Amino acid sequence: MRIRATVAAVTGALALSALAVPAAQATDSTPSKADSFKAAQAAHQAASGKTAFTGVGAADTGTPYALNAKFSGVKVNNGKPIVVGTTKVSVPVTFTVTHAADVDLNADDIELDVVIYRGTVADPANVLLGDDWPACTNASATVSNCKGTVDIYPTEELSNADATTFKAFGYVIDWNDVDPFAEDIDWTKVGYAEQDALATTKLVRQSKLTVNASPEPVAKGKTITVTGRLTRANWDTNTYTGYSGVYAQLQFRKKGSTTYSTVKSVKTTSTGGLSTTVKASVDGYYRYTFVGTTTASAVSAAGDFVDVR
């Protein structure tokens, strides 16, 4: 398992604090997060013609050469929003890299990844990446198809502000047997390529919805009260809290039918509560459904059956 902060910092300005990593992911046999961060950041800074990251090596010299590698066809979570609750979520990342014939993406001294971030490359607010390096399969001598993941730990990595659009950033570093943690690095021996804005993806807070229709059974023509509650993941507190001030639709499906029809819209209370009344007519199922917002996922409650007599 990789240290998740490794080379996500190639953007040159990624704050180490933005790459908070569960301690359980590190092992004694892997480099420290700080060392990996410094080496990766130094690669970007050297490629940009800037002074290498302070502390990487006092005698670092030169500039990495431009590695012939280009990303295309990047898809994060198959193009769908990433719905995150309060536990770990892993989503697929697929992409193609076109490269020179002498670039072996599976070589031990090559580091390659596509990560997602929000904010700007120069000053990202958060960066999310995978637990392991992507696996690449050669389609030809110059084209490789790669599959990886973005592994999200909401307790350690997310706040409610992260319910927004993230961009994908790709990089390749060919260390060419250079020790990235050496006291001094000759950057002229290191190949480097990076590419920004490869794709976008949205993170949304997972929603949950309940329903209860009563009384049941009920006499035909009598009043049925349908209650429920809409909650969404709160990444600041790692709990689900009521989603207030939004509308859910009360829907009804007649017994024997497979189709729900909307009866009315109901606004949630300050605690996410839902309550309305309808007249009993025929046997069937009542449910609430929520179409979602820019920060919360769509969700439908399981239908609650009412026997009308």
From TrEMBL:
Keyword Signal carried by entry: yes
Signal sequence coordinates: 1-26
Source taxonomy: Bacteria, Bacillati, Actinomycetota, Actinomycetes, Kitasatosporales
Protein name per Swiss-Prot or TrEMBL: Lipoprotein
Keywords of the record: Signal
